[in-house]
Design goal:
303 residues, mainly alpha
Length: 303
């Protein structure tokens, strides 16, 4: 295994994940912009005949941004899978695969990859390259993903609850009869009512509610992989085939999943590193110093 090749591929994967995050953010912005333009009569009236064209442009931007975000995420996942196997089994990165990754990378991706830095090891395990190390790496990554995805699932449900509650309060206030005391009356404009209605429908059918379900599925899939890895580790005899099967199982579990936000990963890094160090020392018998926290991705997906 050439350490330099593994590091180059890891940096390319990190750059792809960051770009995926940026394009996914543009999906959210375009969707919310379309909701505001379509739901608020005042904005529609101000735009006049340009309203349909603007909505069409926002729809195109949403589709384009989602496609580009998915492409970058797919390339990042591919790079990470190769890094996991190379680091775990001590295998050399296939020169053809590395050349493809470098050629497929745009100048922006290569520029971002050059600035990717990691002060700590990507994986915490101190085991030598072997099937056991690959299993330990996958288990560590799956455990991190399980914890972070569980956190984010709860956050997305809170978002839905707050927005829907606020929207319903606006709708309730709009349907109340005028107060006998004028000072106690709060005027609710029709624009605000329509915007609140659109926001409630969006958050209940798309956006955070759907993303909460995706994070829940990711958490459950990562949990199953972690349990499988723990079972393999306790057998004491792990073959190359068994370790590779586990790595591919984890790849399937995270395929198409939403990305983990970098900000949340950083907020939880210290706490989860400390917890994983205890797990590694007691359960795996691998007195590892905690690494940088191997999450398979570090950005948001589109709603």
């Amino acid at each position: 295994m050439t350490t330099e090749d593994v590091e180059r591929l890891r940096r390319l994967g990190g750059a792809h994940f960051k770009l995926s995050n940026g394009w996914a953010t543009s999906v959210t912005v375009a969707q919310l912009s379309a909701i505001i333009v379509g739901a608020v009569p005042g904005i529609r009236d101000a735009l006049g005949q340009w309203t349909p064209l603007l909505l069409l442009a926002l729809a195109y931007l949403t589709a384009l941004s989602r496609a580009v975000a998915d492409r970058h995420k797919g390339r990042g996942d591919t790079a990470l899978r190769q890094v996991e196997i190379a680091d775990g089994l001590g295998r050399k990165i296939d020169p053809g695969a590395l050349a493809d990754a470098l050629d497929d990378a745009s100048p922006l991706v290569r520029w971002m990859a050059e600035r990717e830095r990691r002060d700590q090891p990507y994986f915490a395990s101190t085991l030598p390259p072997s099937p056991a190390r690959l299993v330990a790496n996958v288990r560590e990554s799956a455990w991190w993903t399980k914890r972070l995805a569980g956190d984010l699932r709860a956050i997305e449900f809170w978002k839905v609850g707050v927005i829907v509650a606020a929207g319903l309060l606006v709708l309730r206030a709009a349907t109340l009869p005028p107060s006998r005391t004028p000072a106690a009356s709060i005027p609710i404009s029709q624009d605000l009512v329509e915007l609140a209605t659109a926001a409630v429908l969006f958050f209940l059918t798309q956006g955070p509610l759907r993303r909460a379900g995706e994070y829940g599925a990711l958490r459950d899939g990562a949990s199953r992989v972690e349990q499988h890895a723990a079972s393999l580790a306790r057998t004491g005899t792990i073959t190359d085939a068994g370790a590779l099967e586990l790595a591919h199982e984890y790849q399937i579990a995270r395929k198409g999943s939403p990305l983990v936000p970098t900000m949340w990963w950083r907020l939880r890094q210290r706490r989860l590193n400390a917890l994983w160090k205890e797990v590694a020392a007691s359960d795996l018998g691998d007195a590892s110093s905690a690494g940088g926290g191997p999450t398979h991705n570090t950005s948001f997906s589109a709603p």
